[in-house]
Amino acid sequence: MNIVLIGFMGTGKSAVGKRLAERLNRPFLELDRIIEEREGCSIAEIFERRGEAHFRRMERAAVHVAAQLPDVVIATGGGAALDDENVKALKATGILVCLTATPEVIRERVGDVRTRPLLSGAADPLAEIKRLLAARAPRYALADHIVDASHLSVDDVVESVVRLVTRGA
Q: pTM to 2 decimals?
């Protein structure tokens, strides 16, 4: 089974995914990086030049390819779980682990909001983070496991994920 990390931006999906893949000796796929490589520009530039709908189509295609690979660790973008087709494809071959963090921790980790398309135009980025988290909460709740990464190191989150996904295996 694949291990799929979902959750909001700034929760540690990329850092945890990379370290988790190393720990389990599995390939690591970071879907946003794959999309950036295919498009030849950053996610922010894709949103600006082609729009969110184009990005979501690219994301769906990347999800379907990644979900077919065996025994990989996948870090999705923060909005991947909003699409029913993505969730279905990822759950068919993987265990979904949602990484969470408090809005304040996310705001601190995100840093320069100009690099984050969903926050770049917000007058109050923290308020926008809270709004988006509330709207996405039901989708993130579809995960098989949830790990609050607010105050844990990357290694601690990796250990939590390993314990959760190997329980009963």
A: 0.94
